Amino acid sequence: MAAVFRGKVRTVASWSRRLSTQQQSGPQESPTGGELLATRGRRQRKDPSDRSVLLFPGQGSQFVGMGRGLTKYPNVKEMFSAAENILGYDLLSLCLKGPEKELQKTVHCQPAVFVTSLAALEKLHHENPKAIETCVAAAGFSVGEFAALVFAGAMDFSEALYAVKVRAEAMQKASELTPSGMLSVVGRPQAQYKYACLQAKEHCKSLGIEQPVCSVANYLFPDGRVIAGHQQALDFLQQNSRTLQFMRTKPLPVSGAFHTELMASATEPLREVLRQVELRRPEISVYSNVDGKRYMNESHIRRQLVRQLVSSVKWEQTLHEIYERTQGERFPQTYEVGPGKQLGATLQKCNRKASQSYSNVDVTANEE
Question: Which of the residues 52, 142, 355, 357 is marked catalytic?
């Protein structure tokens, strides 16, 4: 049960709430060091370039060696220690040493990306506290939403990690029911993705597959999509890529068709664990993958996190929502917090001006 793990780690969000209480009721015991991780004081500056936005990556960004050197930052050792208790295996060792085949598994990489992202957040706070203090918005890609919600004070670290564990196990189990996968596609402007998926499904029916699934799973950037579904449908798309106006197609190294109807059996385990988790309204704007809109309250978070499993990740739409500006208005500083630079690459393709204020937090810091 998720409540078993409540309060084991002092996280980003818990100290932000503590500071808020102190500001309202007068001075109390003052947190120090890493305990100040999410102390985002009052933001009176109006210049958008003095604000920050944090983006948290998802599955696929993991690599062996991530997390190297991060344990020297406050709270990170405690995070990985709590993770070992919750998950039942040494997550830090898996991140640092692999083996890669084990790290790539859905059941391992989702918790690994989640914890490493929050470890990187500790590094960002240590090296650039202003980025935390002036943050006005956050978003996470797929499982990255859980890290964004922890940062925003909506979930506690340990409970969120437990929910990620249940989510990953349920998605892995759902993947094993049907041969399926995901295909990265870059198309020409005239490419019609939904029509291509319809053709792929008709092909599957001709092979005797009942109720075939093939749909856009991720909207990444203009003409950049990930399509997921039955493996036979993806094979059809690759074989007919030129006719379908696809310039590039590349199968992704994942175990199933995430963010499609083939994940339906994973929804109930996640829904059940989210009933046990204590949720709060986010203290800053956090944007949902399902529709690119802000989370409003606790029940909204529960509904959308479950819907996300079987819905397209509308990342391109989310970036437009976050970075929409009147002409001439400056953009906030953007930090990708976690392994890789993939979200920075999509930001550049969606909004070149906003990407000029982007940087990533390196998750392979040098040991001291």
Answer: 142
CA distance 353 to 347: 9
Tell me the residue type at 365.
A
Note the Cα 149 to chain centre separation in Å: 10
Please give the full DSSP string across 302-347, using - where no structure is assigned: HHHHHHHTTS-EEHHHHHHHHH---TTPPPPEEEEESS-SHHHHHH
Would you call 314 helix, strand, or coil by DSSP?
Answer: strand
Its pTM stands at 0.89
Residue 30 burial (10 A CB sphere; 0-12, 13-18, 19+): exposed
For the record, the structure tokens of 153 come out as 């004070």
CB 117 within 8 A of CB 179: no
Instruction: For residue range 148-188, list pLDDT tens digits in order.
Output: 999 999 999 999 999 999 999 999 999 999 999 999 999 99
Residue 3 has pLDDT above 50, yes or no: no
Is 259 among the catalytic positions?
yes
> Residue 277: how many CB atoms within 10 A of its CB?
24
Placement of tokens 């919750």 in the chain: 86
Other beta carbons within 10 angstroms of residue 230's beta carbon come to 25
* Contacts (Cβ under 8 Å, ≥6 apart) of 320: 292, 350, 351
With contact defined as beta carbons under 8 Å apart, do 362 and 337 qualify?
no
Closest CA to 39 of 117, 126, 141, 113: 126
8 A C-beta contact, residue 78 and residue 15 = no
The SS3 call for residue 218 is strand
Catalytic residue among 117, 241, 259, 285: 259
Residues 214/290, Cβ–Cβ less than 8 Å? no
Sign of CA dihedral 253, 106, 176, 183: negative
Angle at 238 between CA 237 and CA 239, to 5 degrees: 95
> What is the per-residue pLDDT across 237-270, written as a single tens digit (0 to 9) for each?
999 999 999 999 999 989 899 999 999 999 999 9
